[in-house]
Amino acid sequence: MNLEEITNLFKSSGVLLFRGFETDVNIFKQFSNLLSTDFLDYTGGAFTRRIIDDDKTILSVNDDQFEIKLHGEMYYQKTKPLMLWFFCANPASEAGQTTICDGKEFFEQISVSTKELFSNKKLKFSVYISKDKWQIKYKTDELNKLQEMCINNDMSLKINADKSIYLQYICPAIIPSKCGKYQVFINILLPTKQLHPEILKFEDDSEIPHDVLTELDEIAERITTEISWKKGDILMIDNTRVMHGRRAFADETRDIYIRLCSPAFEF
């Protein structure tokens, strides 16, 4: 395949699905290496993920089976991947689709009043983490390294007497596109309110109105595209523009891998 054609299509659409090719984990790694750089190991990640083939940059997705609403990957901290790769090692026998949605189109669908609300109020994530859990999450047991990571991620850190911690991170729900030409609704608002509603409020500690959450859920369902996985599929996503999520499923053999990185080309 012509790599220039791939990069041009990616810049235009923000997401590409590669299907019908002979693939395996090694080919997935080689192919993503051609177009990417600065692979991350998911330090600070919200979920537990398995390392695949002893490569810390190839990980399982969340191994739970519940639905996860649309979001940008790792938008609960400053350090986040600009690009995502997914590989389908084994699809679910039914359901388990990955959902995708253009954050540019999402922004355009939001009501004027909700746009004004998000322009005036940033999101605030506030979370308590026990000592054992933050050591796993941040891959260190040294407080000075944790403090350095928090500074680099614009997070405020409070260390309690028992070495548990309290973190806060403030960020906008709507950001300028990477090219600066339009606005993008991309964040982790919807799954946070779905799974851990108590940790997310506006910066001034006011609650996000229920009717706003309902509006966002309705937009998401209206403009979401589903990827019904086939074995060997590779999915390439612009994490500065395109949100992704997952439909619930019951098949324990579903196995999807992810790589977090930056593009090795201008976009």
Structure description:
- This protein has 267 residues and is of the alpha+beta class.
- It is 28% helix and 30% strand.
- The protein contains eight helices and 17 strands.
- It has helices at residues 3-13, 25-35, 103-109, 112-120, 131-137, 143-152, 189-195, 210-223; strands spanning 15-18, 36-37, 51-52, 55-60, 68-71, 83-90, 98-102, 123-129, 155-159, 165-171, 174-176, 183-185, 200-202, 225-227, 234-238, 242-246, 255-263.
- The strands form four sheets. Strands 1, 2, 3, 4, 6, 15 and 17 form a seven-stranded antiparallel sheet that branches. It has a four-stranded antiparallel sheet with strand order 5-16-7-14.
- A hairpin with a 5-residue loop joins strand 9 and strand 10.
- The model has no long low-confidence stretch (mean pLDDT 96).
Structural class determined from secondary elements: alpha+beta
Mean pLDDT: 96
- Strand percent estimate: 25-35%
**Total count of strands:** 17
Number of helices: 8
What is the string of SSEs from the N terminus onward? HEHEEEEEEHHEHHEEEEHEHEEEE
**Rg, nearest Å:** 18 Å
Q: Tell me roughly what share of residues is in helical segments.
A: 25-40%
Spans of 5+ residues with little confidence (pLDDT < 50)? none
Report the principal-axis shape: globular
Largest sheet entry: 7 strands, antiparallel
Measure the end-to-end span. 19 Å
